[in-house]
Amino acid sequence: MRFGLAVPTGTEGMMYPIPYADPAAAVDLAVQAERMGFDSVWGNDHISTQGYVREKFSDPPRFYDPYLYLSYVGARTTTLRLATAISVMAFRHPVVVAKQAATLDQLTGGRFMLGVGIGAYREEIDAMWPQHGLHRGRHAEEFFASLNVLLSERRASYSGEFISFSDVESFPKPVQSPLPLLSGGNARGSRERAARFGNGWIPACLTPSEISDGVAEIRAVAEQSGRVLPADFDVAPQLAVALGRTREQALKTFEESQIFTHMRSLSESTLKGRQDDLTERNLIGSADDILEQVQRYADAGTTTLSALLFAANDVPQTLEQMQEFAESIIAVTGDGHA
After folding, report:
1. Which residues pair with 83 in a beta bridge?
2. pLDDT digits (tens, 9 = 90+) for 23-76
3. CB neighbours of residue 333 within 10 Å
4. Which domains are delineated in the chain?
5. What local confidence, expressed as pLDDT, does residue 276 receive?
6. 101-129: pLDDT as tens digits
7. What's the pTM value of the predicted model, to 2 decimals?
8. pLDDT tier for residue 286 given thresholds of 50, 70 and 90
9. Could you write out the three-class secondary structure of the chain?
10. Which entry of 24, 277, 300, 334 is 20 to 30 Å from 208 by CA?
């Protein structure tokens, strides 16, 4: 098991209050994550303030571009893996994404992982595609297929309903071959794209049983498609963490956090039908409780606990929770690997 940290590229107003992290603090969280023994950091992707955030906060959130942020962090770290969780496919043309991903991987010596998804908030896509009526599912199919062409072929061409390009020579290619490409999301389409195109899967807040079922489905779809999944296929769910002396204390911390409020906001999208008991879908409890939970996720096929969101409402609290997690969980399981 590897452990990753969710960094605040697009979290103010959603997972964390406004204000939460200025640029210096956002970068320092990643630097401290490497020092503490986290394997990776994962940046999310937003371009405009969501409606419910505008209603709750008087000030707008600070959203940082994940590629630029990760590039800067790459220069401040040496071994830390750098990932998007997730990069929203509708925000950028795949020709641009291929160039950004390859550049980041080259600059950091092969430390980049590209997680992509359709995005949780339709309103952001509508802000960019008001006249086009983009169908996110069909667009996602084309995005994965065309991106694989761009990352693997010298002269790349693709023609689809939403994405088309001709004779693109995109160099340099990434250091890693193949570049880790992970499909983000809980919906069936995300699992199918992971099975047919990807090197991993990034669901959010699923139980170990749901992870196990999802992995079985991915393997079945891959087999039906005539594809052998890579041996290092990464099953990398994103979860929240609330670590306390007791489970009761940890639960209180979780329910008082902005993360808890954010998860409730996803009742009609990412976490639709999964609001029954959020405490069973995240790492909540004492160190012993969380160690048991981590083992259940490992037994279900999880290889990375990616983009961990700590239940804290400011940066000092986040750093404190990270340190406790590093000492009680990461160090116990052995240098970031269970």
Report:
1. 42, 113
2. 999 999 999 999 999 999 999 999 999 998 999 999 999 999 999 999 999 999
3. 18
4. 2-333 (3.20.20.30)
5. 65
6. 999 999 999 999 999 999 988 889 888 87
7. 0.94
8. very high
9. CEEEEEECCCCECCCECCCCCCHHHHHHHHHHHHHHCCCEEEECCCCCCCHHHHHHCCCCCCCCCHHHHHHHHHHHCCCCEEEEEEEEHHHCCHHHHHHHHHHHHHHCCCCEEEEEECCCCHHHHHHHCCCCCCCHHHHHHHHHHHHHHHHHCCCEEEECCCCEEEEECCCCCCCCCCCCEEEECCCHHHHHHHHHHCCEEECECCCHHHHHHHHHHHHHHHHHCCCCCCCCCEECCEEEEEECCCHHHHHHHHHCCHHHHHHHHCCCCCCCCCCCCHHHCCEEECHHHHHHHHHHHHHCCCCEEEEEEECCCCHHHHHHHHHHHHHHHHHHHCCCCC
10. 334
In this structure, the strands spanning 304-310 and 238-243 are parallel
Token pair belonging to 103: 């550049």
User: Token pair of 147, please?
Assistant: 């991106």
Tokens of 38: 């986290």
304: which 2 tokens? 């990375």
Give me the amino acid identity at 82: L
